[in-house]
Design goal:
Heat Shock Protein 90, Ribosomal Protein S5, domain 2, nine-stranded mixed beta sheet, five-stranded mixed beta sheet, elongated, binds adenosine-5'-diphosphate, binds magnesium ion
Length: about 625
């Protein structure tokens, strides 16, 4: 038996490990299972190279929780270690990894998921254990099994032991303050969180399942009453992981249903099916596999739940993929597995890292390609999905220029009435009829087909196409389209009278003289609140309504952009509600208003007409509405 000192500077390493990793104590299990998995994969590899004698069978791991003895044991059938290897890999290499980690994180709490990458892996056991033992035997011929023990002081013990099979057993003597880890439920939960897709089967206890060889018999008694005997159960090993998850397979090996069932495996509490998936698979210039899913985006989606999970070689690392997956795709679900993502760095460094940038743009490209092919292969189905995916796509168009360019091929612009256009189709469709006198093609849109019904009607009468754009971020996207596409502008149908929205300059003649117009303006201004309404006289068709309330495009859009955030609108104060009152000087009623001699009667006419205009825009409420109703009854009396 030998004793030794791990390292002279070791005095304070264990307290620091315990203290600074407080929030992450649970990762000890992931680290030890990763080591056991590595050891098993190494053995498998050596075996395929013919360097291991005999058949290694189907090695697996086992985790045992012994509440009475206050122990957790992690057992593998991997390559094991010789005494010398323990000295080297545990006492020196693993330890110096731990030391480096502590050095770096003395004063701060690290990101979760990085510990293993410091080679701190093994020593994380001391976060929960007051004493750790290793029983191990190398796969090499005639090697002597050894037992290592360390109680968290710099001293360790190494001695021969009589284990016969190759492999390693780690015994954790759980410290009093960590006894929560002696609950089966706790360990079971951790195993599913971190190890659900690890490549070597992991046994954790046993479970009862139906005996498939037994079909319960049904018998009838003398009264004809049927009784069925109970189903026979058998006890089997409880294997907690799926060692061959879908993303490790080739797309050609998988059917649609396999992708769906993997989705259910990933998110067992998620009952809504995904809309479609994207299989990621690249090995140069970086290594990355994964499957992303487009979920149905509904109002009550919780972005904190069921996020994209990041794995490294099938070990769960984190579900915070910020910096790795572009922002606009963070609402997707699924798995990304890449050994090439550096994790022992801060998030801001990660975003600047060249390899990570490449990964992020690869993901964007793959998503765009998939959308192109979905659009091409089944346009109708794509159109049907549009409302469920548009938020993500529109957000992507706003935030990533490359994606914006690609989106030309699949981003849809739906119209009132059901047509869906991609950009070029839209412009082709409207450019003849909707180009104004300055050569600008004007894209008309509505945000609410019901509320803006009369305006849509006016546009339709002119043969114009009206889009229906109702996403919360649409005003930002419109702004972006206007600045990146040439000679187009967007206006909402209720932004002005239709002839002003698309000004084709066929000059209209007013029935009122200049003087009459001036005095009309004066009486109107006396009766319409000017803080909110700007009066605008227009010679329109005599059949068009006398008063029309519109909301100027610019003000309204700024307001919306402010409400949905971003766009540099913050801190500009609140935009007030501002409207235009478009007065049709060719409408008979307007002439009557002007010619009414009694001031009282004139005021009543103006109020009534104005209220009707407000009513049509759903702007008449409360006391105003009550007064309007009263006045209306009086008028018809
Ligand atoms: P890392 O896994 O990053 O190398 P660890 O601290 O987790 O760092 O482990 C240190 C080393 O100890 C491993 O590289 C390996 O050589 C050895 N080791 C740890 N656990 C086992 C095991 N179960 N079987 C064989 N070797 C192991
Ligand atoms: Mg390790």
């Amino acid at each position: 038996m030998a004793t030794g000192n791990i390292n002279v500077t070791a005095e304070n390493i264990f307290p620091i490990i315990k203290k600074f990793l407080y929030s992450d104590h649970e990762i000890f299990l992931r680290e030890l299972i990763s080591n056991a998995t590595d050891a098993t994969l190494k053995l498998k590899h050596l075996s395929t190279l013919g360097e291991v004698k005999g058949d290694i069978g189907a090695p697996r791991l086992e985790v045992i929780v012994d509440k009475d003895k206050k122990q957790i044991r992690i057992i593998d059938q991997g390559i094991g270690m010789t005494g010398e290897e323990v000295e080297k890999y545990i006492n020196q290499v693993a330890f110096s990894g731990a030391e480096e980690f502590v050095e770096k994180y003395k004063d701060k709490v690290p990101d979760s998921g990085i510990i293993g990458h410091f080679g701190l892996g093994f020593y994380s056991a001391f976060m929960v254990a007051e004493k750790v033992e290793i029983y191990t035997k190398s796969f090499k011929d005639d090697s002597q099994a050894v037992r290592w023990e360390c109680d968290g002081s710099p001293e360790y013990t190494l001695e021969d032991t009589d284990r016969t099979a190759h492999g390693t057993e780690i015994v954790l003597h759980i410290a009093e303050e960590s006894e929560e880890f002696l609950e089966d439920g706790k360990i079971g939960g951790l195993l599913t969180k971190y190890n659900k897709f690890m490549p070597i089967p992991i046994k954790f206890g046993t479970k009862e399942v139906d005996d498939l060889d037994h079909t319960p018999k049904t018998t009838k008694d003398k009264d004809g009453k049927e009784t069925t005997e109970p189903q026979k159960k058998i006890t089997v090993d409880n294997i907690i992981n799926n060692p061959n998850p879908a993303w490790t397979k080739q797309p050609s090996e998988l059917e649609e249903e396999d992708y769906k069932s993997f989705y259910r495996e990933l998110y067992p509490m998620q009952f809504e099916e995904p809309l479609f998936n994207i299989h990621l698979n690249v090995d140069y210039p970086f290594n990355l596999t994964g499957i992303l899913y487009f979920p149905k985006i509904s109002k009550n989606i919780d972005p904190q739940k069921d996020k994209i999970q990041l794995y490294q070689n099938q070990v769960f690392v984190t579900d915070n993929v910020e910096g790795i997956v572009p922002d606009f795709l963070q609402m997707l679900r699924g798995v990304i597995d890449s050994p090439d993502i550096p994790l022992n760095v801060s998030r801001s460094y990660l975003q600047a890292d060249g390899a990570v940038k490449k990964i992020s743009s690869y993901i964007t490209r793959k998503v765009a390609d998939k959308l192109v092919s979905l659009f091409k292969n089944d346009r109708k189905a794509f159109e049907e999905k549009w409302k469920d995916i548009k938020i993500i796509i529109e957000y992507g168009m706003l935030s990533e220029d490359k994606f914006f360019d690609k989106a030309n091929k699949f981003a849809l612009y739906p119209a009132v009435g059901g047509a869906h256009y991609i950009w070029d189709e839209l412009i082709e469709k409207i450019k003849d009829n909707q180009t104004d006198k300055d050569g600008k093609t004007v894209i008309l849109y509505a945000s609410d087909a019901n509320a803006q019904h009369s305006f849509i009607q006016d546009a339709k009468e002119k043969g114009y196409e009206v889009l229906l754009l109702d996403s919360p971020i649409i005003s930002h996207l419109i702004q972006k389209l206007e600045t990146s596409k040439e000679n187009i502008s967007f206006v909402r149908v209720d932004g002005d009278h239709i002839d002003n929205l698309i000004n084709k300059d066929d000059t209209k003649i007013s029935k009122l003289s200049e003087d009459e117009q001036a005095s009309l303006k004066t009486v109107l201004e006396a009766n319409i609140p000017k803080e909110t309404y700007t009066i605008q006289l227009e010679p329109m068709d005599s059949n068009a309504n006398p008063f029309i309330i519109t909301q100027p495009e610019f003000m309204r859009r700024m307001k919306e952009m402010q409400a949905s955030g971003g766009g540099g609108m913050m801190g500009m104060g609140n935009f007030p509600d501002m409207y235009n009152l478009v007065v049709n000087t060719n409408n008979e009623l307007v002439g009557e208003i002007l010619n009414t001699k009694t001031a009282k009667k004139q005021e009543r006419l103006i109020k009534q007409t104005f209220d009707l205009a407000k009513l049509s825009q759903n702007l008449l409420h409360g006391e105003e509405l009550t007064n309007f109703i009263k006045r209306s009854y009086e008028l018809i009396k």
